[in-house]
Specification:
The structure is a single chain. This protein has two domains: 2-179 and 358-387, Glycogen Phosphorylase B (Rossmann fold, 3-Layer(aba) Sandwich), CATH 3.40.50.2000; 197-356, Rossmann fold. The chain is 45% helix and 16% strand. By secondary structure, it is an alpha/beta fold. The strands form three sheets. A seven-stranded parallel β-sheet has the order 3-2-1-5-6-8-9, with helices on both faces. It is built from 15 helices and 15 strands. The protein is globular.
Length: 388
């Protein structure tokens, strides 16, 4: 099978790690993988190391965090040009299927539609709820176009399934949980000393990711004389970093909060922590939640989005209500004092995550969707005649 995939960025984030794992697994199973990128970047080098060929086409998102009609018109014009460039590339590569690895880019889907090549959209995000994106054509119209331009739509959680089934027939949607590959060979460390009690939250620093909840919870715990320390790991804009820093100082917690920029290796922080936090307002899936679980950390997460699929309250972690730092502080305090509960939750989390989120299972699920499409195309060859 020949597959062309499109990525919305060349930096390394959750969706890009999924793409890397997916490409490596598909190539190992005999799939020819070509990946279209907006530019080469770090991701391009790593994809080629995984066995893919890469191609650069300067397309743009059809969404932004700030609404601007003029900017939307410019993006649309550039994406039309990019779609034509991808169309020429597809005629050359003659793939069996095209897959867009995000909701945020339309150009590959448009090119595939014109050539009548089966297209799959792989959705890793809500769009509006989690990232605050404003779609150039409006959210509803954009998702309806996703439906019209796709043979199947893969989603990475039941939360995403429920959100998009309002616009896309549920019979077209397929759930494929990500593999979340934790590297082998991580050093075995002794549990960190009981005090200070170390917390870690990994994720880009934005209001929707809930770092403010974590900082306020630590402020409350400090006021109760708890010996806690928090690492906030992830990139932030300059303005938001300054805001979080001021908040920590105002709460007299800045001396126990470490602000760490983006890292591709969050495992060091997980291995030196007692508890991981996932405070997102509406997480689509929660890759870092699963990474922490696979390393045996209990996770305290917001009871929303995909997080509530991953955490069984009192079973493999604890849940709190987003925007309720007092509730988050209470759950941290519970694990602060109860080592036995902490170890039980961490052990359950490790066992469940390793059984549920394997790369082998993820590749099998995606291959199943591709097989569905190939079978349908074989029965209706006119759907892909434009690629020949």
């Amino acid at each position: 099978m020949k597959l062309v995939l499109a990525s919305h960025t060349t930096t390394i984030g959750g969706a890009e790690l999924v793409l890397l794992e997916l490409v490596a697994g598909l190539v190992a199973r005999g799939v020819t993988a070509d990946v279209v990128l907006p530019d080469r970047g770090v991701l391009g080098h790593r994809l080629e190391a995984a066995g893919a060929r890469t191609w650069s086409v300067p397309y743009q998102w059809w969404a932004a965090r700030r609404r601007s009609r003029a900017a939307a018109v410019r993006r649309s014009a550039r994406n039309i040009v990019a779609a034509y460039s991808i169309l020429i590339l597809l005629r050359r590569l003659r793939p069996d299927v095209v897959l867009s690895n995000t909701l945020t880019i339309p150009s590959a889907a448009v090119a595939a539609k014109v050539l009548r090549i089966p297209h799959v959209w792989y959705l890793h995000e809500f769009g509006e709820k989690d990232h605050g994106l404003s779609f150039d054509l409006g959210f509803g119209w954009s998702v309806r176009l996703v439906d019209r331009m796709s043979a199947r739509v893969i989603v990475n959680s039941h939360a995403i399934f429920d959100e998009f089934s309002r616009y896309i027939p549920s019979g077209k949607l397929r759930i494929a949980y990500c593999g979340v590959d934790v590297p082998d060979g991580l050093p075995r460390l002794s549990p960190p000393p009981e005090r200070p009690f170390r917390l870690v939250l990994v994720g880009i620093k934005t209001p929707s990711k809930g770092q403010e909840d974590a900082i306020r919870a630590v402020g409350l715990l400090r006021a109760q004389k708890r010996d806690v320390r928090l690492a906030l790991v992830g990139h932030a804009s300059r303005d938001y970093a300054l805001y979080l820093g001021r908040l920590a100082r105002d709460l007299r917690a800045d001396d126990v909060i470490d602000f760490v920029d983006f890292t591709e290796d969050p495992y060091h922080y997980f291995q030196h922590s007692h508890v991981a936090l996932m405070c997102s307002r509406s997480e689509a899936f929660g890759r870092v939640t699963v990474e922490a679980m696979k390393l045996g950390l209990p996770v305290i997460g917001a009871n929303s989005g995909g997080t509530r699929e991953l955490i069984r309250d009192g079973g493999n972690g604890l849940l709190y209500s987003y925007g309720d730092p007092a509730g988050l502080a209470e759950r941290i305090d519970r694990l602060y004092w109860d080592r036995e509960l902490r170890e039980r939750l961490g052990s359950n989390a490790r066992e469940w995550a390793r059984a549920t989120f394997s790369v082998t299972r993820h590749i099998k699920d995606v291959m199943g969707v591709l097989a569905e499409i190939s079978s349908a195309a074989a029965h209706h060859p006119e759907t892909s005649q434009g690629s020949k």
